[in-house]
Structures are given as structure tokens and as C-alpha cells.
Amino acid sequence: MERRSLDPTFTDQLTAALGGPRTSRLLTELDQFIPWAELCAPLAGLYGPQPKGGRQPWPVVLRVKCLLLQRWFALSDPQLEEQLRDRLSFRRFVGLSLADATPDETTFVVFRRRLRERGLEPGLFERALALLRARGLVVREGTLVDATLLHAPRGGGARGETDRHGDPDATTTVKGGQRFHGYKAHVASDPRGLITGCTLDTAKVHDSRHFLEFCADAQGYVAADSAYWSRAHEAALRARGLIPALLARRVRGQTALAPVDALGNRIFAGLRAPIEHVFARLKHTMGYRRVRSRGLARNQADLTLTALAYNFRRALALAPP
Q1: pLDDT band, residue 259 (cuts 50/70/90)
Q2: Which residue stretches of 198-318 are H helix?
Q3: What radius of gyration, in Å, describes the C-alpha atoms of the chain?
Q4: Max avg pLDDT among 151-160, 175-184, 252-261
Q5: Cα four-point dihedral sign 153, 159, 163, 167
Q6: At the topology level of CATH, where does 139-292 sit?
Q7: Which of 178, 187, 199, 207 pairs as cysteine with 227 (C-beta 3.0–4.6 A)?
Q8: Which sign, positive or negative, has the C-alpha torsion 164, 169, 174, 175?
Q9: Separation CA 129–CA 111 (nearest Å)
Q10: Which sequence spans correspond to the domains of the chain?
Q11: What's residue 2's pLDDT?
Q12: Which residues contact 271 (CB under 8 A, 6 or more apart)?
């Protein structure tokens, strides 16, 4: 049995119109848009029966709402607890009255750990994607693939080394002549900018490592930049009945692209442009420029939850009024 929120008090009614109007409106629209019961149904058995007389756990829906708030507003666990205590719009969104207690940061840590230990984040992401597909918001004809680098703490050890404060799984690569330490998020999206797949790997892994994984369920065409181009990739896509819209690059001995390749690149650049907008929204709107945890497994789980949160916010903008 889950903990139940108290009924709204007279003070809740008096303060119903208070709070930042833009944030309140956004959270109200998201709360109405997301089918919480359907989304969280697979998590119903996450917490077993509690001992008689023991404190009941927070509702799963409330916990999921908290994790999405955290990603929409780029909050740490202590910041999320503080905002839930302080912001009326946040309390209304998760279903807390002014008289209710507030979940502490440990609640969020333990919930994420339970999800990760049971491998539930991918299923939660796929369920959310299926709900959006059922509404006709996900375009099936076309898959866009790209990758972006995410910073990770390097630590304060000697040059070229990491100490106990760094991330042991992160690696170093060079981009644009600059050394970069962290991870690489590999993402697939539809042509409207909804994420259909994501995986995390270390920074030194080449962009194309996970390319064909994202193409397994693709339809129509697959668009990507020149880092993904190879004759083998083009042949593999054609063998699956897909159109390879991969930006060509010069091969050894070529001083310039052939005219047909140059024309194809101009066309394909427009097809793959929406995935650049995905990364822009993730990094600038949601603050996802660096990983939030240490270790590949934790950060993979965080990427999956971030993609889930992103998709709902993006889908709200795409949905007809």
C-alpha cells in the first residue's frame, strides 16, 4: 500500500493561482498530457508490502514525476528536494498539498537504484515511446542518428591520470584539437525530433559503433553525418530495404567530392538537421551537458530517463491543441 496525499486544504485553494505562470502552465499541460497510470503500470510491484505499522512508501507515480521534474529543470537531488519544499507549481504537479510531507533526496536516490538494479529504465522508455506512437506523434518513415560528447569529472590526479574523485569509466578523446574527457551519447530520432533510441559509451568509442543497432527497426531512410559513412554501412542499409542518406566524405586520393556526392550531401544535410535540434534542446533547455553520476551503468540509466523526459516535453509541443 502506498502513502496517500492529504486532501487539499483551504490554504491550498487560496494559493492555487500562485506561482510562476509559465512554469505552472507548462506543468499543468504536461500533467494532463502524460498518461501516468499507463506509463507507471509496469512499476506497480516495485515496492512489496510494508510491515504493519511501518511508514508507507511514496506513490510510484509521484516518484516518476519527481525524476522527470529533475531532468526538465536540470536539478540535483538536493535541489529537487529544496524545490519541492519551495515551489507551489512543483508540489501541485507531483500531487502534494501544502500540509503533506516532502520526499527527501534519499527517496530519489533509492528509487533510481531500484530501477537500475531491475533494469527497468529501458522498458519505461519504450513504454513511453509506444504511448506516443499510439497517439500518432512518432514518424516511422525516417531515422536520424548522431552522437554528442558529455563531460565527466576528471579528478585532481597527475596529468593524464584520474584519482578517486574522477570517473573510472570515462575516457578521453580529441575533438577540434581539444582533449575531452567523458562519455558519448549515441542517439536516434525520428524526423520530428523525438528520440527513438539511445545508448551511452565512453568518449573514445567511434560515433559509428552503435549505428546499425539503431537501424534494426528503421523504415524508409536513415540519415547521418559523414562519420557514419562507409560502403559497408550503405550496403547493410540497402540490404534491409532502407535508403542510406549518409553524408559522403572524401576517400584517400580524392581532392574533392564528386558532384553527385556534393549534391547528395546538401540534400542529406537537411534530412539530418532535426537531430542537431535534439541535442540543442537536451543541452540548452534541459542542461544535459555533462553526466550526473560516476560509472557507465548509472549514466546509461540517467541518459535513458533524460530521453524519456525529453520526449514528453517535445511531444507536448508537437501534439495538436
Answers
A1: confident
A2: 211-214, 231-239, 259-280, 296-318
A3: 22
A4: 175-184
A5: positive
A6: Nucleotidyltransferase; domain 5 (3.30.420)
A7: 207
A8: negative
A9: 21
A10: 10-118, 139-292
A11: 57
A12: 142, 144, 191, 221, 223, 245
Please tell me the distance from the alpha carbon of residue 82 to that of residue 147, in angstroms, as a whole number: 33
The CA distance from 103 to 9, in Å, is 19
Give bridge partners of residue 182 from the DSSP assignment.
151, 171
Q: Give backbone dihedrals phi and psi of 156, rounded to 5 degrees, phi first.
A: -110, 30
pLDDT at 38 over 80: yes
DSSP state of 17: T
Q: What pLDDT does 176 receive?
A: 83
Digit-coded pLDDT (tens) for 222-247: 999 999 999 999 999 999 999 999 99
Query: Virtual CA dihedral for 247, 251, 257, 261, nearest 10 degrees?
Result: -40
Write a three-state SS string for 132-195: HHHCCCCCCEEEEEEEEEEECCCCCCCCCCCCCCCCCCCEEEEECCEEEEEEEEEEEECCCCCE
